[in-house]
Structure formats: structure tokens, C-alpha cells
Amino acid sequence: MRRLAIDNPELKSEYEQNIQSQLVTSATWQSATTIAMTLPMSHEFDTYPLIKQALSMGKQIYLPKVVGKGLMTFHPYRLGDSLVESSFGVLEPNNPITIAQNDLDLIIVPGVVFSDAGYRIGYGGGFYDRYLDGYQQSTCSLVFDLQLSNDWEPEKYDRAVQKIYQYQKG
What we know:
CATH superfamily: NagB/RpiA/CoA transferase-like
CATH architecture: 3-Layer(aba) Sandwich
Largest sheet: 6 strands, mixed
Radius of gyration: 15 Å
Order of helices and strands: HHEHEEEEEEEHEE
Strand order of the largest sheet: 3-2-1-6-9-10
Number of strands: 10
Strand content: 15-25%
């Protein structure tokens, strides 16, 4: 699957700031104290500013770690914590402490392509769809316009996110 990216760093940063502003002013963000998200790969939404903002607001951040075929857990993260590169090339926490699934108030779900209905195509492992099955709290995704497409149908095991944040003009 092709990975979509914004090649212009200034434009990417502008979009990220706009999308982040929408998220952090939302009632969902404001009420959340435990938030799960990923650390970004270069072509993805840069979550580091969001992590910094969350930590400055007293929120707790949790990062995913693959623990088996199709299975992941979330672990607490603070800037500067030890990270290990996974076989997928993603940085994962090196912390053995986990949080129970429904103790997470908000999960910011990554993906490659998103439909208007909140369904997503990820990187092919089904980790988030499995994790979200039975999850009772809030979910969202931070999406660049070029990631939006309705030219595909979700499969029966796909789980939609509740809210998609995308660039809003002025």
C-alpha cells in the first residue's frame, strides 16, 4: 500500500497545528486524562507537539507496544523515556507497566487512508481493530486531506473511529 505524505514541511506543519488546535479545544480532549497515541514516522502526523501539550496539561500519555501476533498493549510515556525500535520500524516504550483497555479515556488512532465514516486502512496488522473491539471510550484520528478516500469498503472486522480531525480553513 502506498504511504501518503505532504512533501512541503511548512505546509505539513501548518496542517498539523490546525488539526491539533481543533483536537485540544474539543470536549473529548479537555475531559481526557489518559490518552493513547503513537510516535510518528516521518510521513505521519507529528505527535510530539501534541504529547508536549498533553503533558503540560497534566494528562498521561500511553504508547502502543506489539506483544504478539495482532496484539498490542499501551504503556505510559514521558518525553525522554527509553524507547526500542520494533520490527515494524516504530519506536515503542521500554516500560513494562500497562494500562487496562477501558482506563484509556481517548485513543488517537493512526492510519493510512480514512473514510468519511471513520473507517481506516492501517498498516496491515489489524492491531488497532482488535484493540478497539470492545473499547468503550473515545477514539479519533488526525488526518491530512490526502488521506481521505471513500473508494473502498470497510471489512467486517474494521472498527471506525468516532471523530476525524482534518484541516479546517480560516
